[in-house]
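Homework help thread (please don't just give me the answer)

Our assignment gives two proteins as sequence + C-alpha cell strings and asks us to describe the second one. The first is just a warm-up. Here they are:
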Amino acid sequence: MNALALGLDRTILELKMYSREKESVFFSFLFPILLLSLFSVIFSAQFQEGAGQGGMTAGLFFMPGMLSAGVLLTSFQTMALSIATERDDGTLKRLRATPMPSVAYFLGKVGLVGVTSVLQTVLLLVVATLFFDVVLPTDPERWAVFVLVFGLGVFSGTVLGIAYSSLATSRSIGAVVIGPMLVLQFISGVYIAFDDVPTWLQQVAAIFPLKWIAQGMRSVFFPAEMAAGEMAGSWETGKTALVLLAWGIAGLVLCITTFRWFKRGTT
C-alpha cells in the first residue's frame, strides 16, 4: 500500500510537471486535436456529397487516425522523451538514491500516460462530435473493441517507450523518436487512406503497433463495408489484439532487461 500511495503521489507530480512543459503538451496532447480540426476544415468540401446521408465526412475519416496517433504520442513518445531526459540530467540517479520504491516511479509514469491518454481521447471525441458532425457508434460491441484497442495500444506504447528511452541521450532522443514516428504515421493510415499506401509499405507498417491501432480504431468508427480497404479485406479484430498484446509483452521484457537508472559511463 505504501508503494501504491507513493505511486499516486508520483502521478500527481508527473501531471504537474507535464502540464508545465508547453512543448510536450502541444506536440503530444494537443497536436492530434489540432490536426483533426485542420484536416476536417481543409478537406470538408471533398466529403460534402456524402455528409448528412450516412456517408463519410472529413471529421469521421480522419478521427480514427488521430485517435491512434494520440495513443502513441501520449504513451510511447512521452515515455521515451521524458525518461531519456531524466536519465541524462541526473533525476533518475537522485531518485534511485532515495527511499522511494522503484515501482512508485513507474506507477507515476503509468498514471501520467493513463490520465493524459484518456483526457486526450475524450477531448478528440467531443471536438469531433460537436464541431465536425461525427456521429459516434451506438453498438456496444464496437465500444468494447474501442476499449480493447485503446487499452492494448496504451500498454504497448508505454512499455515500448520506456525501453526505447535507453537507445539515445536526451540530446538525440527527439530525432530518434519523432523521425520514425512521423514516417510510421504516414504509412499506417493515420493521415491518408491505408489502401492508398503502396503494398510494400503496408507490409512494413504491419510490423509495428501503430498500423494495428489505426486499423482497430477504423473498425470502431467506419462503416463495415470499408473493411474491404484493409490488407486482409477485413478488420481482423482478433489479430489486432494479439499483435498489440505481443508488442506489449515484448516491450515489458525489454524494459526489465534494458532499463538503466544511470547514463552510460556512470554508476
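The one we have to describe:
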Amino acid sequence: MRRGVIAVATLAFVLLGGDPAAAYLKLGIRVGAGTVTLKWQKFPIRYFVSNASGGGVSATELRDVVNRTFATWDAVPRAEISAEFAGFTAARPNDNDGLTVIGFLNRPQQSRTLGATSFLVDTVTGEIVEAEIFLNSAFDWSVAPSGQPNRFDVESIMLHEVGHLLGLGHSALGETELRSGGRRVLAAEAVMFPIAFSAGSIEGRTLKPDDMAGLADTYPTTAFRRELGSISGRVRKDGRGVLGAHVVAFNLRNGHMVGGFSLNEDGSFVIGGLEPGPHALRVEPLDDGDVESFFDLTLNIDTNFRVKFHDRIIVVPRGGGTSGIEIRVEPK
C-alpha cells in the first residue's frame, strides 16, 4: 500500500466576503488521470485526546467537547459513521505515530489559523488511516455553554475540524464583510464555511443542510439512495465548460440550500443529497473568497462570469436524479 501525508488547513481566520453562496466539497487526491475521494473505510474511528491543556481549556474539557462533536456528526440522517474515544495520550497532533490525535498546539506564527486537520492516507484507495486535529493555543478558548466574550468557542471550531477529519472540504455558503485588517462573518449556512465567527460566538455549533448533505453523500445509507435525489448538468460560457463555478440548489418548500461545484473542464456538476421537490438553481463565481480555500491552485478556476439563475424550476425525484441541465453564463 502506497501512503502519503496530506495536510488540510481549515483557514478558520480570526479576521473575516461578499454575497452568499453554497457548495460542499469532498476532499480528494489525484490518482492517475482521476480523483479519489478521501474517506474512512473502517469504523469506529478510534481517536485519542492529548493530555495537554491549551488556551484556558483542560484536556478533560476538550475531550468532552470532542465527544459531543463526533456525536453531532454521527446523528446526521442517512449517513453511516461511528467513532469512539480511545483515551488520553501524551502524544501531540502531527507526531506521525499511527494514532489519530486531537489536541492543542502553540502556533503563534499562524496568527490567522484557529485550527487545522491533516491526514495519512492510502494514496491508491483514498482510505484515511490516520488523522490529526490541532487547535491553536495561541488564542483564548472557551467551553462555556453560552460562550465567553473575547474567547473562541471550542465546540464550533471542533465541529468544523471533525468535518474535515471525516473527509469534507469547505462550503462557500456564507457572507462576510470587509473590515480593517480582515473580514468578519455576518452569516453562514454551513459549519464547513472556511472563516470562523468572531470570538464569543457559538453560532457554529449547529450543522446545516449543506453540511449534512455532504456527509451523507460521502457515507450514504440505503435510505439516502432511496429517499433523496440529485441534480446534474453543465455550466458553460462561450460554448466551453466553466471549471469551479458554484451551483446552488435552493429548496422552494423549506429554504434549504445545498450545492456543488463544477469540477471538470467540461463544466459538469452533480449536487447530491437533495430532498425531493422543486428547486431553483443559481450559478455564481467564486470571486468573494480565497480560491485556495476550496481548490488546488494548479487548477484553472474560472471566476470571470456573471451570476445566473436557471430559467426553470427543477423538480428533484425521490431516489433518483434530474440530469442534462445546462446553464449558460456570460462573461463579466
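TA reply:
I won't write it for you, but here's a hint about the kind of observation we're looking for: The first strand starts at residue 3 and ends at 9.
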